[in-house]
Amino acid sequence: MEEEITRRLTVDTKNAAAAVGPYSQAVVIGKTVYVSGTMGISPATNSLVSGGTRKEAEMALKNISEVLKTVGCTTHNVVKVTVLLTDMQDFDGVNEIYKQFFPKDYPARAAYQVAKLPKGAKIEIEAIAHLGPIEDYEAY
User: Fold this and answer.
1) Which residues contact 53 (CB under 8 A, 6 or more apart)?
2) Rounded to whole angstroms, how far apart are CA atoms 67 and 137?
3) What is the pLDDT of residue 82?
4) What is residue 118's three-state secondary structure?
5) Which of 2, 37, 93, 104 has its CA 20 to 30 A from that of 85?
6) How far is CA 88 from CA 7, 67, 71, in A?
7) More confident residue, 2 or 50
8) Burial class (CB in 10 A: 0-12, 13-18, 19+), 2
9) Band of the pLDDT at 1, cuts 50, 70, 90?
């Protein structure tokens, strides 16, 4: 019996901040989109945005949105998010920004405080999304 080949698509869009190391902005395997950890780096300047954690969170989520758009998704397709913060005191402020990108039917999420992030960032966000239509329904 011949083994089925799984196709992998790596994502690289100029509409989101470039990867800061040897990795892809996202990888699509089957119907799953794995978006790499994304910081608040402006794609126009390739630098962290100024204004603190909330502004960095907003830019990171815009970058994620652009990466998702490249493969035909939106934030509605996101099923899991991981947030890394250098200061957990910023958690509530990040939630305010987060709700602008995920207004309802929130994805599962974990948030951790870390000692340090690349480029001196205050926040990094990664996401996992489902590629294709999603129908929401009421929980049990």
Assistant:
1) 85, 87, 90, 93, 94, 122, 123
2) 26
3) 98
4) helix
5) 104
6) 38, 26, 32
7) 50
8) exposed
9) confident
- Counting residues of the chain whose pLDDT is more than 70, the rounded percentage is 99
| Single-letter code of the amino acid located at 34 | Y
pLDDT, tens only, 18-40? 999 999 999 999 999 999 999 99
Token pair in block for residue 70: 């490249």
DSSP state of 89: G
Q: 3-class SS at 3?
A: coil
pLDDT at 2: 84
**Distance, first Cα to last Cα, the chain:** 42
The two three-digit tokens of residue 104, written as one number:
């309802």
Q: Residues 57, 66: contact at Cβ < 8 Å?
A: no
Contact assessment for residue 124 and residue 60, using Cβ atoms and an 8 Å cutoff: yes
Its pTM stands at 0.95
**DSSP summary character for residue 55:** H
